[in-house]
Amino acid sequence: MMNFFEEHFGKRYAPNTRETVRRQTIHQFLDAGIVVINPDTPSRPTNSPNAVYQIEAGLLELLRTHGTAEWEKGLKTHLASTETLKAKYAQARHMKRIPVEVAPGKTITLSPGGQNIVVEKIIKDFCELFTAGGTLVYVGDTDKKWAYFNETLLESLGVTIETHGKMPDVVVYVKKRSGLF
Questions:
Q1: Which tens digits make up the pLDDT trace of 116-125?
Q2: What span, in angstroms and rounded, lies between the C-alpha atoms of 163 and 167?
Q3: Neighbours of 138 (CB within 10 A)
Q4: Furthest-apart CA pair in the chain: how many Å?
Q5: Residue 148: exposure state from Cβ atoms within 10 A (0-12, 13-18, ≥19)
Q6: Which pTM does this prediction carry?
Q7: How open is the CA angle 145-104-136, to the nearest 5 degrees?
Q8: Whole-Å CA distances, 7 to 2, 11, 14, 60
Q9: Dihedral angle at the C-alpha atoms of 71, 74, 75, 78, nearest 10 degrees?
Q10: Rounded CA separation 62/64 (Å)
Q11: What is the pLDDT of residues 135-166, one digit of tens each?
Q12: Domain spans, the chain
């Protein structure tokens, strides 16, 4: 591929940049299902200097119909049967979300990374040790500030919250201690 770039586009890449080209150029084509890797030897490692990339067979067949009467129908069929890259990435992001049980039988998912890893640990580990028997009142998420909010419980305690105000990441009510933590 790098030889092709140099021969046809005048762009020369150093031999040690193969991995960069793979990650920044080919990766998106693989994710979109436009190309397949190592169809001749599927067990060959992705980062092998002998890696082979080939246009996906169904897409190649479709592209060969471009400019003919079969193109529009073939394109619609292809798009209907192919998962879009946007959907694939959304699914991957959803799979990485952090599940947290906020009430018996009620689980929410927090966005991955950032402070939410700590929020999960607070709920699963800290609360079990230091607020045992407590009821989760509020959980904030990096993506969604009010990921979980038991407004009814707070109102029963005579507490009102300004929804535009600042909130801690986690609020727990412990009845035995008559306190919010």
A1: 889 999 999 9
A2: 9
A3: 23
A4: 76
A5: buried
A6: 0.50
A7: 40
A8: 9, 8, 14, 23
A9: -160
A10: 5
A11: 999 998 877 788 999 999 999 999 988 877 78
A12: 2-90, 97-180
Instruction: Answer for the pair 147, 119: CB distance below 8 angstroms, yes or no.
Output: no
Contact 130, 173 (CB under 8 A): no
Residue whose tokens read 């801690």: 168
Please tell me the total number of residues recorded for the chain in this structure.
181
Architecture in CATH for domain 97-180: 3-Layer(aba) Sandwich (3.40)
> Looking at 62-103, which runs of residues are DSSP E strands?
98-103
If you classify domain 2-90 with CATH, what class do you get? mainly alpha
Separation between Cα atoms, residue 163 and residue 160, nearest integer Å = 9
Task: Report residue 170 as tokens.
Answer: 């986690």
Residue 38 falls in which region: left (phi positive, over 0), alpha (psi -120 to 50) or beta? left
* Residue tagged 């909010």 (tokens): 149
Phi/psi at 64 (5° precision):
-70, -15
Q: Where are the beta strands (DSSP E) in the chain?
A: 35-37, 53-55, 98-103, 106-110, 135-139, 148-149, 170-174, 179-180
Please report the sign of the dihedral spanned by the C-alpha atoms of residue 107, residue 114, residue 131, residue 162: negative
